Fold each of these.
Amino acid sequence: MNLKLHIWRQKNNKANGAFEQYAVSDISEDMSFLEMLDVLNEDLIVEGKDPVAFDHDCREGICGACSMTINGNPHGPEKATTACQLHMRKFKDGQEVYIEPFRNKSFPVIRDLVVNRSALDRIIESGGYISVKTGSAPDANDIAVAKSKADVAMDAAACIGCGACVAACPNGAAMLFTSAKLKHLNVLPQGQAEKKKRTLAMVDQMDKEGFGSCTNHYECEAACPKSISVEFISEMNFEYAKARATAYRD
Amino acid sequence: MSTLEGLHVIGEANFSDHGANRLGASALMQGLADGYFVLPYTIGNYLAKAELKKIDADTPECKATVKEVEDKINKLINVNGTKTPSYFHRKLGKLMWDKVGMARNEAGLKHALEEIPKIREEFWKDVKISGTGAEYNISLEKASRVADFLEFAEIMAYDALDRDESAGAHFREEHQTPDGEAKRNDDDYRYVAAWEYKGVGQRPELHKEQLEFENVKLAVRSYK
């Protein structure tokens, strides 16, 4: 198939960016979206032009590196799918495709489609771990975890930290990300001791990074390649209010 | 800690209970086990006691390394040939897949050892990289990796040729049981091969680290 691409080109964080047009031809429908971009880049290099910079690593939907918005949707048109696992058969021959980086003030563009998502790392650094010393690893099933809780923790832990939720949100909020990371630890026995401290620290860091707040658009859940539920956001708000209200005791 | 002060090797790379096998679950389990049991008692302890002095960028070692990297980048960019880094990556990959894959034999490995230097030579004559070394440059990054692969691939082939037995994922077709299982030769190859890099295109030097088995006896592993 042949496609007409409009790709956001931006040399660095200081330069102005703009869409540029490229034509790609003989694209196999079995290629992934990133492989289609690889084909374009091979041609660009041979022509002596700069290839389109984009982040990628595992190309199997688990690393969270790809960060492009395709025709207005972070990761493209397919539900619950990262850009690397999006196949060209989802596009029509002759289609025009607009490709741009994940947009957010807290995600400065490094080059073209590559953005700096360290803000999410700093949210994790502020409390996304368990520092309680628990001694040697206990025998399996020593600490009983209800199946329902284990399932919820697993659902939350499915977040790959790609930032699609942030790019999809009209408010530029990182609440789906932060709430998933909180839930995954807060629901398990090991996470209880630091629950309050963790909730306050991560939400405060999220605000400090300049992300917006949730006003229930639910665009994040729709864009999330791992279908993380917005229910985690309501719970984060609840836990944050509780932690804030009782912080005087600590 | 490795033999280099301050360089810790842990998880998938630690090289202990799984030998040289880095396939799937054993690599993952090594990462999990080391992270859970070993990491909390090692690196934290080291960092707590280590004098992590600030290293001055003016030290001769630092200057020499910066110069070496800059020279390599300039050399890569100045080739200004006609073929992309991915072209060479695929060409090398195909050769390695065919001749230095899980099943390999003497003729194939010798062929690979003839071909790898040719691909490397072509790479350094004809690779094309866009842009400069002073910017975020994906084709330069790829070319740097491929340049490394072109050196490392040769050592892999030397090692596979030298180890004239089958062991684990190293299946030398010449050495198999009648029903197609790997046939080890513990008398001659009960060692870890540590290859010393001697420069591009130079035959690496083999250092044998003998394996002594005191508590367990070597046996044939059978999945049947």
Amino acid sequence: MDAWKEFEQNPISHSAAHHIVAIKELLDEYGYARVSDVARLLEITRGSASITLKGLKGRGLVTEDDRRFLGLSKTGEHVARSVIAKKTILKKFFIDALGVEEHQADIDTCKIEHLVSSETAERVAQFLRFLDSGDPSSEHFRKALAEFDEPCSGDTSSCPCCAEACLVKELGDDELGS
Amino acid sequence: MTPESGSSQREEVLRRLNELFAEETEAAVRYLYLAATVKGLDRATVRATLLEGIRETLEHAQTIAEKVIQLGGTPKLRIRVEVDDGLTTGRDAIRTALAFEQAALDGYKELLDLAGDDVVLEEFARAQIATESEHVSSLYLLLDE
């Protein structure tokens, strides 16, 4: 019941995860990262980037040398790798297993990549390994899933997923109030 | 540089100016928030500095917007201010202000690099750098670190 509180207490905020991953991407691509590069990559002001990075430096995740070039500490590097790995696994799951369109998969993974636990990500990776294993049962599963196009009837009495209300109907559009 | 100047350099200058427009506007909002949340024995002194910061950064934002218009562009404002909840000490408020003031100073330095042989833009960038440098120095003096 208190899981929602964990969301707010997550050690790596959405913004922090983006800054750390941005530094990692810049270092991998150009060999250096400055505040201005991070700001431009994330399409935010330098001031915003600078303030977030100040907090991350204080927490020992980001480093800065005398010439103000940014780096990642061992822990920062670990966080970056973990977030990127979770994003990659989840995006593949959304696209390959669920058939979500790539753009939407990108948006949705971005929202949860830093929040999902390593345990869950590992289970998703395991599921994807099974799907790609070439095992006849996985092939059968894939085929059956792809062919399952039975529309939701809204009848909760015969639905193995829903209980009192049709969960799919509850989803609505993503716009507020719709 | 005029509205008729070569398009690619002009577009780049306008892009940088609009970045600075957002930078200064965000800074004004941050100063406002810091002034509202600063606590401690030095609250009065620091708050006065922060309130002065609102006035100065808004002035800079207006100057930049004017410069964008002079170059035939349209001021564009894309800002997103995320702040930590809670009260702050005077020292931490000044440290935060230094972070975004230094960022603005770096932005003006980049603008100067872009000026090329445009004397008017060069003078504008130099004047802003001088003002921002003084501001950053005065914040450092307050910190006394």
